[in-house]
Description:
With 429 residues, this protein is of the alpha+beta class. The protein has helices at residues 3-14, 18-56, 69-72, 101-108, 172-175, 180-183, 224-234, 240-243, 259-271, 279-322, 324-332, 337-375, 392-418, 422-426, and strands spanning 61-66, 85-87, 95-97, 115-119, 126-129, 150-153, 164-168, 187-193, 199-210, 221-222, 248-252, 274-278. The chain has 14 helices and 12 strands.
Amino acid sequence: MNGFDLIRSAIGNSLRSKTRTVLTVIAIFIGAFTLTLTSGVGTGINDYIDSTLSSIGASDVMSVTKTPADAQNDGPVEYDPDSSTVESDRPAGGDIEAITSTDLDTLAAVPGVLSVEPAVSVRADFVQYDGGTRYQSAIGELVPGMSLELAAGEQPDASASDDQIAIPQSFVEPLGFADDADAIGKTLTIGITDAQGTQSTIDATIVGVSEPGLVGGTSAAPNTALLDALHQTQSVGLTEKAAQTYASATVRFDPDATDAQIATLKADLKAAGYDGVTVEDQIGSFKTVIDAIILVLNGFAVIALLAAGFGIVNTLLMSVQERTREIGLMKAMGMSGGRVFGLFTIEAVFIGFLGSAIGVVIGMLAGTLANSVLSGGLLSALPGLSLVAFDPVSLGVIVLTVMGIAFLAGTIPALRAARQDPITSLRYE
């Protein structure tokens, strides 16, 4: 019996007891199906994060804040009359120690820092178009070099002298525009109150409409000229010291810097009393959480596959028991123990292949269906996100992994069959 005959015979033997084989294949299918979907979700979300990082740019920018004093000392923090606090402009919020002009000079002297700019924070009262309804809106800061994901228009020009702004897509219809394109070129009125309680308005030209995403897309993004104008208006009535305190600073470094050089820069900033995070660090935290969740889900899938492995052991042990005389006859006719071992392990691998292949195919169909349903519903606020994406290499690894587990499970009954004495087997009733 050559290799081809061995494979053909193994496949035929595995289909003798259809009920047992089908139940075992179903058990394997569940694990392979789960692995396919969980790995697909991980691939889809990570691809979206990677594409977001590449599209927004600003890979040479680091946001810097002061390291909290209680993080540097174990005991009580000594009072510093020259320090002040401001509200953090990061998602976690809370009060943090302010960045001052002295800090900006200190940061500029850190090796590897090319330039330092204060991160200006502005709180607008409202935005309005053509005397219509006033709406509350957050005003973000668009770091030079960073790009918004646009539904229409262009990026606000950081070097332009005129006041420009990009508005979130969710504001288009409420402000009274027919569609995204209709908003481009129109004048947006921004209301802002200074420290003395006087409310003023500043007009800006809408140059873009931003889509929602992991970074930005939910707040209006002004260019540098408009942000400075808003900040100056907001600072009227403040003391000179208060007007020159900031929640964070923006540090630029060599765009060709390696990961090791960036890590060194962060360490130098830490030693000087500052915490620095890049855009990749901020978005990368999402990736870490997703990878951890996927790892846990994959763990459950592997447990299901291991349980299915015991099903393969049981199926083949029963097959060996039922085919004892047949095994004895094959060995009496000259088939070696190695060939008998190969016959039963091939049966196990075929069952594993059958279950994993069906699991992968059904998983891909389920993932494709989920994408079409969710993209028009729950995930409609994140255009471009395919929740489930399939990597051919990952799918191949799943199939091979399942076949490997099936092979290991098949070795126990295969060894039992290979070691049977032909004379004793032929006498078996």
